[in-house]
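#struct-pred

JT: dropping the chains for the assembly here, can someone run the whole complex?
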Amino acid sequence: MSGPEGRLAPWLGTQLSGLLARRSHALLISGPSGLGQYELALALATAWLCQSPTEQGACGHCSSCHAVSVRTHPDLCVLMPEVLSLALQWPLDERVQDELDSKKRKPSKDIKVEAAREAVAFTQMTRSGGDTKVVLVYPAERMNSITANTLLKTLEEPVGQVRFILASEAADQLLPTIRSRCQTHELAWPQFDEALAWLEDQSRDDRGRAADPQDLRVLLSAAGGRPADALARLREADAKQAASQWRALPKAMARGDVAALSGWSPAQAIDALQKLCHDVWVLRVGGTPRFFQAQDLPAGRAAVASKTSLYALGSWSRELAVSARSAEHPFNSGLMLEALTSRARQALLTD
Ligand SMILES: [Zn+2]
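RK: done, full complex below.
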């Protein structure tokens, strides 16, 4: 949702001003993914390091802001799983990069203890000239207890002007000792229309043309109102196609049409089916669906949902939760999508 050089999404900008007013040396940004917790954390780090910050954030023009934007600031240490460092273009340690280049191992999905040790060493080195050093940890729940304990001592007794920002979508999984050293900021959700306007802006092409707001509305609802997730979808598919694929999904599943899941990984398909299951349930008990529009959902044949139909949705939901845990390493993704589709059809047609 914009790097340090770009403009921060409006709901993040408001939160940034609030955070800058705090004096704490350790902040924990906690909240669901897809709302921009990493962007907010990075904007805060950039502002802390900036040579002429304002109450709204970093100036965006000084040499420090520039160094952050090109990922070479000597007073900023970013602690992440290696897969994420690669995705977000943060340089890795030379030795690590060599290991990955020579395919000795795969990039880690967790924050490695070696990286935490380097972060500790970073806090103990003399500063390069600025007043402040910053350690950014994201996502903080990817530290196991050994890694977290490595960092803990520094977090408890920081040397000089070291400040910490931890960002996490699962703060309850952090060690209580880590949590208690930080001031927590609960990430605020944007209003739906605010997020929609931002998404429309982000969807503009080179000629300044934005995607159809109706399609964006579908994609934002599909993402449960999480704008960064909707944007990620928009970056991998055309808005119109993605929106019509989403709208067609429920009835296609009721027909057992596996083609509706084409182009999706098992993990994406399971996520979509969990949302479908949720919405069908809500609709059958008289509520308003959250991820789909009511008219796109398959109608139950009975006017009043039977216990059997709710029971079928309940067991489908539990099975999807189990599948979600193994979806990263499917034995055969084509077969898995077929199995998911036939299971969806069965659950949706029970009444
Ligand atoms: Zn600056």
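JT: nice. The CA atoms of residues 9 and 198 lie 7 Å apart. Residues 50-52, 58-59, 61-62, 64-65 surround zinc ion (CB under 6 Å).
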